[in-house]
């Protein structure tokens, strides 16, 4: 029996039907489009069985499948090692084309090259598209073609290119929806994938909450953030729609979106930063890496209320306010002299919005070892940070219910820790 010729669109970090560049182009194919998602064993095997992000991905795929059902179509869900899954797909279907949106992380780049090689052996056309960012790879560079490593000039060039274009082009996918394949695939339950539902939930995003973003964003007790980061991470929202909105409504929020692209560009251009200091001169720092100190930091029992509230919020909800992230990261690297990689790995395990580029970039910023980093001699005082940004301890009391009963003594004196950190950095920075 002759198999139907089809196009496969591979969902990854773009879990939406609207304004999806790769999908928009796939739906213009000469062949019916089967939408596909692969639960990758190489990623899943390192996650707890109740990982909240897997629950969110699953729910987002269910939402897509419900939209497809209204079009008499469905999404094909597969689980396994990606290369093996693709080999079986090529055997199962007469695949003519594979479409997907680009991912700029080292693991993803290597994976996609391997899939392209498999497709090439079977004369299958592979097409990839920019969807996750406004500007990718080498689109924003210095005059000599080299990547920017300082944020402000990168931002200025980014804005210049953006305003020159007028705005980011949005893609109206709906008129092409009739080109989805009419195949009906069964949608697996979460247990079939090997997971159970997490009690931690991704909060719906809300742009109305950031009307006064510039004035409120540093105060964790105020509900002044958008909760967009997990949605951006997994692509349930379009970066083009967000950027165009922010350009009209909120320049401070736009700057934060540009920071995201800056770190993605850094990771793409300097993939070694995943496991190494951006500044090799900092390789000589003698970290203490005390495991007991690290456990107290992880559990939110350091005796510094701002630090502890942040870690407890993270452990309980998968979120942490951005100002508090800076305080807890500085405390780990400088007060406790624990390598930023320990903190980065813990955040990667817990954060709902974990994105490798931003996580590595921000941790190296806090440690002083990254590009455009905080200077090594800047050591946040958690008590001053509390007085400035949570003076009435509203945020702290929310996450530390025992706060008013006589809170723990700080595990280390700030002045001592600051002096020790500066001395250790000075001694360790290679000339």
Write the layout of secondary structure elements.
Blueprint: E1 5-11, H1 21-26, E2 33-40, H2 41-44, H3 52-69, E3 76-80, H4 82-92, E4 94-101, H5 106-121, E5 125-129, H6 151-165, H7 190-193, H8 213-216, H9 229-234, H10 239-249, H11 251-269, H12 291-299, H13 305-317, H14 322-335, H15 340-350, H16 356-367, H17 382-389, H18 394-399, H19 414-428
Parallel strand pairs: 1-2, 1-4, 2-3, 4-5
Give a written overview of the molecule.
The chain has a five-stranded parallel sheet with strand order 3-2-1-4-5. Helix content is 47%, strand content 8%. It has three domains: 1-132, Rossmann fold (3-Layer(aba) Sandwich), CATH 3.40.50; 133-169 and 211-269, Alpha Horseshoe (Serine Threonine Protein Phosphatase 5, Tetratricopeptide repeat); 273-428, DNA Cyclobutane Dipyrimidine Photolyase, subunit A, domain 3 (Orthogonal Bundle), CATH 1.10.579.10. The mean pLDDT is 96. It has 19 helices and five strands. The protein starts with a strand and ends with a helix. α6 packs across α11. The protein has helices at 21-26, 41-44, 52-69, 82-92, 106-121, 151-165, 190-193, 213-216, 229-234, 239-249, 251-269, 291-299, 305-317, 322-335, 340-350, 356-367, 382-389, 394-399, 414-428, and strands spanning 5-11, 33-40, 76-80, 94-101, 125-129. By secondary structure, it is of the alpha/beta class. The longest helix is centred in the middle third of the chain and has 19 residues, at 251-269. Pfam families: DNA_photolyase, FAD_binding_7. Belongs to the DNA photolyase family. One of its GO terms (biological process) is response to light stimulus. InterPro entries: Crypto/Photolyase_FAD-like_sf, Crypto/Photolyase_N_sf, Cryptochr/Photolyase_FAD-bd, Cryptochrome/DNA_photolyase_1, DNA_photolyase_1_CS_C, DNA_photolyase_N, Rossmann-like_a/b/a_fold. It comes from Flavobacterium hercynium.
């Amino acid at each position: 029996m002759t198999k139907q010729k089809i196009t496969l669109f591979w969902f990854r970090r773009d879990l939406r039907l609207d304004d999806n560049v790769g999908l928009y182009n796939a739906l213009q194919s000469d062949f019916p489009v089967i939408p596909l998602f692969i639960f990758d064993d190489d990623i899943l095997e390192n996650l707890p069985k109740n990982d909240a992000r897997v629950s969110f991905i699953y729910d987002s795929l269910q939402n897509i499948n419900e939209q497809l059902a209204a079009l008499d179509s469905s999404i094909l869900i597969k689980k396994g090692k990606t290369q093996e899954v693709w080999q079986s797909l090529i055997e199962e279907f007469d695949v003519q084309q594979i479409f997907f949106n680009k991912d700029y992380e080292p693991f993803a780049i290597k994976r996609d090259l391997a899939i392209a090689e498999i497709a090439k052996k079977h004369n299958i056309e592979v097409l990839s598209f920019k969807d996750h960012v406004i500007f990718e790879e080498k689109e924003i560079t210095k005059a000599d073609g080299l990547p920017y490593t300082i944020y402000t000039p990168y931002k200025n060039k980014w804005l210049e290119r953006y305003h020159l274009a007028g705005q980011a082009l949005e893609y109206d996918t709906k008129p092409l929806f009739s080109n989805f394949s009419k195949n009906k695939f069964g949608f697996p339950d979460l247990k079939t994938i090997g997971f159970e539902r997490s009690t931690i939930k991704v909060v719906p995003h809300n742009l109305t909450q950031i009307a006064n973003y510039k004035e409120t964003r540093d105060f964790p007790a105020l509900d002044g953030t958008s909760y967009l980061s997990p949605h951006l991470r997994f692509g349930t929202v379009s970066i083009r729609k967000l950027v165009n909105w922010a350009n009209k409504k909120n320049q401070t929020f736009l700057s934060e979106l540009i920071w995201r692209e800056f770190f993605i560009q850094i990771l793409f251009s300097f993939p070694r930063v995943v496991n190494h200091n951006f500044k090799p001169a900092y390789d000589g720092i003698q970290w203490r890496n005390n495991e007991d100190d690290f456990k107290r930091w992880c559990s939110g029992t350091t005796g510094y209320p701002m630090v502890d509230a942040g870690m407890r919020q993270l452990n309980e909800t998968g979120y942490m306010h951005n100002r508090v992230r800076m305080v807890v990261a500085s405390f780990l690297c400088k007060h406790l002299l624990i390598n930023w990689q320990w903190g980065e790995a813990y955040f990667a395990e817990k954060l709902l919005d974990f994105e490798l580029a931003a996580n590595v970039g921000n941790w190296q910023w806090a440690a002083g070892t990254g590009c455009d980093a905080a200077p090594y001699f800047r050591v946040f005082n958690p008590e001053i940070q509390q007085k400035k940004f949570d003076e009435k301890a509203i945020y702290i009391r929310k996450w530390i219910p025992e706060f008013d009963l006589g809170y723990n003594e700080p595990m280390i004196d700030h002045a001592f820790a600051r002096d020790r950190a500066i001395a250790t950095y000075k001694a360790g920075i290679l000339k």
